[in-house]
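Reply to dn_fold:

You asked what the input looked like. This is it:
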Amino acid sequence: MGLLLQSLLLLLLLLLGCFLRPATAFPKGCYPSEEEGLKTFRCSNARLTEVPRDIPNDTNKLYLDSNRIPFLPRDAFRDLPLLLELDLSHNAIASVESGAFRGLAEHLHSLDLSSNRLVSVSKDAFSNLKAKVNLSNNPWLCDCRLQELVRTVELVAGSSGGIVCDSSAQEEHVGKAFLQVIADTDLCNAYKKTTDIAMLVTMFGWFAMVISYLVYYVRQNQEDARRHLEYLKSLPSKQRRSEESSTISTVV
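and this is what came back:
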């Protein structure tokens, strides 16, 4: 009787374990909701230092704004195939790895990266992305890389004026709106010209070194030959002929 009761209790516990699943544990400060018929996951001001891993994969709108996230790793959002809007503004993002937005190309239509610490990002990080992107209020280095990025993505309307040169190889560009800079100067063409000039200078330097070595080598040989000739002239007649014969024999 006791054995039968124990078996029934064990079966009951197994059944309860199947039907009573524990609730998903979201990061502190994060919660799901529904806004305008879209499934939303909010983590605003949650003191996050990385992209959460337990985001529901049917999320349509994701708010990770006003946190402390420093970078976006590869495949950071790969499990969110239905994501439409992604807000990463007001973080500390300084680096975006290539492939960080992989899996979002088909559906994502809004990406906010404003007010971060982005200085330079490869255009490859946004490859195939059709979303409108906000890149304003970042400490951008205005160079060919940024020019390629801006021409790769579609900027949010009205956000382009917020892309300002915080640093640049050309001092006169600092503090200016980036679109204003590239309207007057093709930074990629200027970079190519600078590279070509540097290559020419390097080649000229090597050429000058080779010529200098050849000149030194010829002069050194001439000096050695002159010294040997003077030495032969200083010898008595018989010894000189002997030295000359020895030299010829050695050469032969």
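The longest strand covers residues 31-35.
Hope that clears it up.
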